[in-house]
Structures are given as C-alpha cells and as structure tokens.
Design goal:
single chain, about 350 residues, alpha/beta, six-stranded parallel beta sheet, 10 helices, about 20% strand
C-alpha cells in the first residue's frame, strides 16, 4: 500500500541497540581485515549529516526533501527525488550541494582508502562529497553524476568545479554556459535524470570491481534502484560477503552476511577504531583548497598531475621543449608554432592552477 504520491508507507527506521552495534562493528572489522578487494557502495544515508541543511542528496539528481505523510494518525517520513516530484507536478526549491560539507563518514572512507582497505567506491549520490573529501576520480564510480562536474559531449573531457555546474531547470536539460577548453563545445552537467541511462564508463568500472571484490559493503542505500542495486548482488552470487548498513530495511537484507541498523557515520567511525586507524581530526574539503582552481578529467584517466606552482619568471627560464612537454602530458597540443613568450603565458594559464587527471 502506498500514499497518494506513490510513496511506500513502510518506511520505518530501525536502530540496533548500542551494544549490538558494537558487536557488529567488530564482526565487520574482521571481514575488512581479511579482504583483498573491498568495494563500498554508498547512498543518500552517507550524506544526511552533511552541513546544516534538512536536504538530502537525491539518488537521481538534485536534492531530497523530507516529506511527512499521514495515515491513521501516524506520521511516515519518506524522501522523494526532485525529478519524481516534478513528474507529480510539484515544484521544489533548489539547495546548492556546495553549501554542505563532507561528514565524518566521508572522511572515515578516505582514511580506509588511503590505508589500502578500500579498493573501489561506488556511489549513487550526486553531491560530490566523496571527491571533495579526497577520494580520487580513478577510485570511484558516481553512477548518477556529480553536481560539480560538467562534461564535453564531443571530446568527453570532464571539468570539476568548486561550484554546482547545473544551470537549467528543465528536468532533462544539461547544457551549461561554459565551453570545453579543447574543442569549444558547450559543456553539459553530469546529473542523471529520470529515464536517462547511467554513464557507461562509470557503470562498467562499478561492475568490474564488483566482480573482483571479496567484500561488498553498502552504506545508507535503500537498494531499490536498478541497475545500481544489482551490483551488491554480484558478491553474493560469487559467494562473497555482503554487508548492509542502513536504517531502513532493504530488499537485499535476507542475503546479507551482516546487517547493521545504525547511522553510517557511527559505524564508519567505530570501524576506524577497530582497524587501529587514527581518528578524524579534521574534515577535508577540496572546495576550500586554495592551491588549485579546478580539475580536468580525461577519459579513462589513470593518474593525477598537480598544478605547476611556478611564477612567470621561473617559467621563462624553461627551454621551449620543456614547456611543450608540460602541455603535452596534460593532453594539450599546439597546432601552430608560437613565440616563447606566448608559450609561457599558455603554460601559466592552463597549468598554473588546475589539477589534471590523465
């Protein structure tokens, strides 16, 4: 049975007792220690404690509002995506995801990745908080896009910005006002809207890593959206453990090796402690990092190139070959010969404050 808007009434949240959560975290730590290729899969629940906002990241674009439905004097809370509400003819205000910050949960994931425990991350979220917290583009599939990333439909280069790139109010519109530095084509936001296919490269990498994994951990996802919810099932089919951490029940609970009803931040911080990793002493957010302005991501990128932190005077001391190589390794090839002075200016402009993933 569902509400007039099609929202399931059975959306109750469950909480394991504290002592039971502690026991389950210890079991989870044992699974993590023995894993060689652990994959984490995150949903909106990982971001609910982000910032001072009542909004929550929608699994298919934009943000979710906490709506209350009434039935026999009982209150039922459920989160609807913006595109779903628009399909119902309901308009909602937009809240910028760049106003929220990564949480302790995001930072715990970064620490486990840097310690070598996590080999790959799959996310349904569009808030971009995993990347902002320090997860590299080479280690994550953002299945429903990233609100900070716009992509060139012609040459397939992507640009990460320190602001939300989405500009259109049209549900299936994607065009932004900026152009690709390489081919001049207008860029498009990467948000996957209703009925649109998931990005091929991201889905393939998510699928391949799910095939390789020997432990799949789901954090804060209801696991009701296909094909994303097919990925955790791959581990089970290969007789590998599946762990689900979510406050609401999911369709995959019956096949999970370990089921934890607790907040994701609580579980992740507890897991750090059990693994003997340092606690979280600061929240990292690339949006606030002054050492670079934006990032450019090439198709099938495998490595990161930091900005050239050199002044004009220093670059003028470089030979022309070195200047050309600095551009070439970033995928920039000049078609015509130019004077060295102009070449230095191009290197300064294109390489001085941008991170490249090539």
């Amino acid at each position: 049975m569902s509400s007039p808007l099609g929202v399931p009434e059975n959306v109750q949240e469950y909480f394991d007792p504290p002592e039971k959560v502690e026991q389950k975290i210890k079991k989870l730590a044992n699974l993590v220690r023995t894993s060689k290729h652990m994959v984490m899969f995150t949903g909106a629940g990982i971001s609910t404690s982000a910032g001072n906002t009542p909004w929550m990241v929608d699994f298919l674009g934009h943000l979710w509002n906490n709506l209350t439905f009434h039935n026999n004097n009982n209150h039922h809370h459920h989160h609807l995506g913006v595109w779903t509400l628009r399909e119902k003819g309901i308009k909602m205000p937009r809240t910028a995801t760049t106003k929220i910050q990564p949480t302790n949960g995001h930072m715990a994931i970064v620490k486990m990745y840097e310690a070598g425990y996590i080999k790959y991350l799959i996310s349904q979220n569009t808030d971009g908080l995993h990347v902002r917290s320090g997860i590299p583009f080479t280690a994550i599939s953002e299945l429903h896009g990233n609100s900070n990333v716009e992509r060139c439909p012609n040459c397939e280069r992507s640009y990460w910005r320190k602001f939300s790139v989405r500009e259109t109010d049209e549900v299936k519109g994607h065009k932004t006002s900026r152009r690709c530095d390489y081919c001049g084509t207008y860029l498009q936001d990467t948000i996957v809207n209703f009925s649109e296919p998931l990005p091929k490269e991201a889905l393939e990498k998510a699928y391949n890593n799910s095939q390789l994994c020997d432990l799949h951990i789901v954090l804060g996802s209801s696991l009701t959206v296909s094909p994303a919810n097919d990925l955790p099932q791959i581990a089970v089919k290969k007789k590998k453990p599946l762990v689900i951490v979510n406050l609401q029940k999911t369709p995959l609970d019956s096949i999970a090796t370990l089921r934890i009803f607790a907040r994701t931040d609580e579980v992740l911080v507890g897991l750090l402690k059990e693994l003997g990793l340092d606690g979280i002493d600061e929240i990292r957010d690339l949006k606030m990092e002054p050492s670079f302005n934006d990032m450019l991501i090439m198709p099938n990128a495998t490595r990161k190139i930091e900005p050239l932190k050199l002044g004009m005077m220093e670059l003028r001391q470089w030979p022309i070959v070195k200047l050309l190589n600095a551009l070439k390794e970033r995928g920039i090839v000049l078609k015509n010969a130019i004077e060295k002075k102009e070449l230095v200016e191009i290197v300064m402009r294109r390489c001085g404050d941008r991170i490249y993933w090539v």
